[in-house]
């Protein structure tokens, strides 16, 4: 049962992440956490997440807009490190605490602000009067800095990256490929963090890690096939809905 649930979460999370640019870790970590101690679950998620990004890069690298990847990705890498460091220094301001069944959730000031920011950006993909607006490429480094910094603070780098890349009016293939390239750059900057997570556990349940990784690869492969069948307006709506749902879960303290 544990392998089935883990593989199902990895498959679904990877397929959704292929389009949205975020979500695999959000789905996979709680499922790993059902069966393993939290420090083991975090390390397992980090391994699957990293390997899946490399696999997705091998599927999409031909469509990467290299200039955007470098202009956005390098500032994001540096700012993510700064944001993660600041997070370790700041106290957490909890606005409200509530429980559902046996789970307790914390609505924090930081996640609420970031969630509202995501909702505002998602409106640009939904409201006809705002949908035609674009972002000049000259703002890419600033977008990378903001995305990386707040991603480092909240741990939700992928969602913030997608929010900014949507405004560049890229094709669906270029949006996905460039986002994956930037995600790999961020992962490289996090290698020391991944090493620390792995060092906290004596050994990983490699059979479950391998099963989740294969399932995640299958989800990414499926996403790459489905991409060819989705129209650009449908793709934009899909990503916007993912962002709205994620922002609401973030504000509510569920993710």
Q: Could you explain how this protein is built, in words?
A:
The structure is a single chain. This protein is mainly α. It has one domain (2-251). It has helices at 2-20, 24-35, 38-60, 66-89, 109-126, 128-131, 140-154, 157-166, 172-189, 191-199, 206-227, 232-251; strands at residues 94-100, 103-108. Helix 1 runs antiparallel to helix 2 (24-35) and helix 7 (140-154) packs antiparallel against helix 8 (157-166). The longest helix has 24 residues, at 66-89.
What's the arrangement of secondary structure elements?
Elements: H1 2-20, H2 24-35, H3 38-60, H4 66-89, E1 94-100, E2 103-108, H5 109-126, H6 128-131, H7 140-154, H8 157-166, H9 172-189, H10 191-199, H11 206-227, H12 232-251
Antiparallel strand pairs: 1-2
Helix pairs in contact: 1-2, 1-11, 2-3, 3-9, 3-11, 4-7, 4-9, 5-8, 5-12, 7-8, 8-12
Number of helices: 12
Percentage of residues in strands: 5-15%
Q: Bin the helical content.
A: over 70%
Distance between the termini: 24 Å
Uncertain stretches of 5 or more adjacent residues: none
Question: Describe the biggest sheet?
Answer: 2 strands, antiparallel
Order of strands in the sheet with most strands: 1-2
Count of beta strands: 2
Mean pLDDT score: 85
Secondary-structure element order, as H and E? HHHHEEHHHHHHHH
Shape descriptor: globular
Instruction: Assign the structural class, choosing from mainly alpha, mainly beta, alpha/beta, alpha+beta, or little secondary structure.
Output: mainly alpha
How many whole angstroms does the radius of gyration measure? 18 Å
Count of separate structural domains:
1
């Amino acid at each position: 049962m544990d392998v089935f649930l883990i593989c199902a979460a990895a498959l679904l999370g990877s397929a959704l992440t292929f389009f949205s640019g975020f979500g695999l870790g959000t789905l996979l970590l709680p499922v790993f956490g059902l069966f393993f101690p939290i420090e083991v679950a975090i390390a397992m998620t980090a391994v699957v997440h990293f390997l899946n990004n490399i696999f997705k890069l091998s599927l999409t690298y031909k469509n990467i807009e290299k200039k955007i990847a470098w202009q956005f990705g390098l500032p994001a890498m540096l700012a993510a490190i700064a944001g993660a460091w600041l997070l370790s220094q700041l106290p957490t301001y909890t606005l409200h605490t509530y429980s559902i069944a046996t789970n307790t959730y914390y609505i924090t000031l930081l996640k609420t602000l970031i969630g509202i920011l995501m909702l505002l950006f998602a409106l640009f993909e939904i409201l006809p009067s705002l949908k035609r607006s674009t972002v000049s490429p000259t703002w890419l480094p600033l977008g990378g800095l903001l995305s990386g910094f707040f991603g480092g603070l909240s741990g939700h780098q992928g969602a913030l990256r997608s929010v900014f890349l949507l405004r560049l009016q890229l094709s669906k293939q270029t949006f996905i490929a460039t986002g994956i390239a930037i995600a790999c750059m961020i992962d490289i900057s996090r290698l020391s963090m991944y090493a620390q997570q792995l060092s906290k556990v004596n050994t990983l349940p490699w059979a479950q890690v391998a099963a989740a990784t294969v399932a995640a690869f299958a989800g990414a492969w499926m996403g790459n096939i489905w991409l060819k069948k989705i129209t650009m307006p449908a793709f934009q709506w899909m990503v916007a809905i993912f962002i709205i749902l994620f922002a609401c879960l973030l504000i509510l303290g569920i993710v």
